[in-house]
Fold this protein.
Amino acid sequence: MFPFSFEWVWDIGHAIFFGGFWYAISILGAGMTFVVLKAAYDTMNDS
Amino acid sequence: MDSALIPEGAKRCSFPKFAIGVAIVSAVVLWGVFAMFLCWFKGLNQTNMNDYYGFALWIWADLAVIAVGGGAFFTGLLRYIFKIDELKNIINFAVIIGFICYSSALLILAIDIGQPLRGWFIFWHANVHSMLTEVAFCLSAYFAVLTIEFIPNILENRQANKVPFFHHLAHNMHGVMAVFAATGAFLSFFHQGSLGGVAGVLYGRPFAVREGLLIWPWTFFLFTWSAAAFGPCFTLLVTKITETVTGKKLVKDNVVHLLAKISGWMIVTYIIAKIIDTIYWAMVTAPSLGFSLSHFYTSNGFYGYWILITEIVLCGVVPGVLLVMKSTRENPTLRLIAIILGVIGVCLNRWVMVLQIMAVPVMSFDTWALYFPSWQEIATTVLPVAYGIILISVAYRYLPVFPQEHELNYSVEVEPVTEPE
């Protein structure tokens, strides 16, 4: 799952599978981080 | 009792009536949970799976709920990427249905693997040569997308929305929902496709194997296409059931007609591709492997040509034509028949691609292997249905799921106008 796992191999299979997986997870993580921070900022600006 | 939680202006049944209904369905949930724990504690000997049926009723149920849950990603794609604004009136419900379908699929997989404590192995020790690994990745990530899409609706609950942070969070999430919807469409394309791809690359099963494009057999594309085509049918069907149970009109006809029309065209194009695929498989692929078409549909007590005709003609061509033609699409009875046939059709397709594959004899000394699931398998398959009913009931009662409900059901109370003296 991670490059530091003992069974990780730098090949095309791992690159495609985990590249796609981490790409999707990163978008979701970044999107949620952005909306949570913006909501906190908007809330503070309200008061 | 719980009136403070019910959306403002909405009318719901009394709390005791609601609680009794939920309690009745909860009994079914408990039955399923009992069977689930039997499978976990005693093992998969609780099922009727055997060396022939390593993929059994659960995997059919899994593929079927994922297919009908495809309405969420496709409606989301149409709403947020193609900017079809009318669909905002049904997208909340499509997301809830998708959430139920995908959480059910994950639950079924947790039972099916027998050792749920090792479920994380598929991520940690991933076999990057397996289409099922791709399915597991995309399924989990897409469930996260559905959860994210569901959160704003939960935060719009009358009481939750009074909390300023939740109010802003829901608002901001709506603002970036297109990004999540696009990610969801990307993930759905691959996991729906790979579920079909798994069947298409079974070289030892001539009933399933197909040619294809690069590494993807044609079943990869047919599965994605069919989920996008029939998923909206399921959304419309559950909407209709909810309207019948609640005795209210919840979505305007123009929205229903639009989604039905899109679904109809998707079904027609899908079924043309499916017919071409079937003819090519029957005329070229199967004969090249030493099998004739009759081999797959005769000499057994269940799988006859009827299943092929039912899937393609009765539950494919017929709903497609009914939904494409304006006169039949806008007839409520014919539309309902079409969407029911469509949902049956996609479920039947998944049945054929999971269970008939296992039943067909391959070696010269083989015979047809028919299978009937154990009660534990049936109970755990019914479990997601009961869970879905409860979640829809709770969501309908406490969340503003249908934006048009008020306009369609409650007359506007006009203040009496007093004449100026």
In short: The mean pLDDT of chain A is 90. The longest helix of chain A spans residues 12-46. The radius of gyration of chain A is 17 Å. Chain A is about 75% helix and 0% strand.
